[in-house]
Fold this protein.
Amino acid sequence: MASETLLARISDYANRPDPYPLYAELREAGPVVRQADGSCVIGTYHEIAALLHDPRMSAEPRSRTDSSSEETRRPPFLRLDDPEHHRLRTLTMRPFGPPHTPGRVDAMRGEIAHITGELIEALRDREQIDVVDDFAYPLPITVICRLMGVPREDEALFQGWTDVIVASADIGPDEDTTERDKAGLQARQEMGGYLVNLAEQRRGRPTGDMLSDLINEPDPALRLTVDELAETTILLFIAGHETTVNLITNGVLTLLRRPEELDRLRRDPGLLPRAVEELLRYEPPVHMRERIPLADIDVAGTTIPEGTSVILALASGSRDPKRFHEPDRFDPTRPDNEHFGFGSGIHLCYGAPLARIEAETALGALLPHLGTARLVQDPPPYRQNAMLRGPRHLPIHL
């Protein structure tokens, strides 16, 4: 009976600081664990990997109507299936650079380092900071604004819109969602309208930024419609922002809890790229994803009926002892670290190269200041969202 409530218990805010014992319980009960509401949860590595690559598993919501607040609208491409998903993803990735290379994103390293340095400098004389509000939150918003070509004087608008949109998705089970839903919808409309208008100003007048590349796609048959342009650019801001905030903040929290590993990275910053990969496995920003089978599907001898809600517990899979040696140990030198931190399959996070650079740069800049830092509160307060898990605040004494 306990296994039938695992998803509810994992989603319970009381377990947000440490859901990992529940993930271990999930793997013991699995691979396929049916829930009282009819859904199935899967937390074992190899089964998750197979399903993320299975074309019979749909990423599309069962209804394209967001029943909570918004009118019927097209979902972003990360919640579409091929061929629509492939077309929109390909068009969106093209401005990032040539196939299979970081391109424009890699060229942003200097700019990201500069933005990070400005944020660090603003904290220099502070005795206590909130890693989220003072550092991890503004960094990715500023980076994406520069990538898209938003004028510097308008960057504050995007932090405001993002604040409202993220807040509308981070509501507790007993809260009245009406007002925040309305505010979130209005912020999405204002952000989308701004970006479409800015793109139109650059139609036929390329300015070398990503927004300019999207509006000046040379093949008219492949260009994004106005609605697709609005939805895709909003997705870049929201999805690219929230996950990076969680990655950086979870990284600081993990290192402050493990002073020996913090000291190791301070002595050998060359380990940072591997440490970021280990953070993506050990304390990932994305914990779960929903998929819907388009036909009856067999998983480890269990038939999952067509149309069933299947929750893939990615964070559980990344700690599966059948795949990773000592999975509950943070090891910044871990080899063969093929985690689910960015998902897998056709929906692998296309912003992963940017998130990696941001996390490496941010943590590298913070390392010299963390040697004598200590947590003000442990565990810190977490966001309500169980799928995108991260601290809402992380106050530290410097």
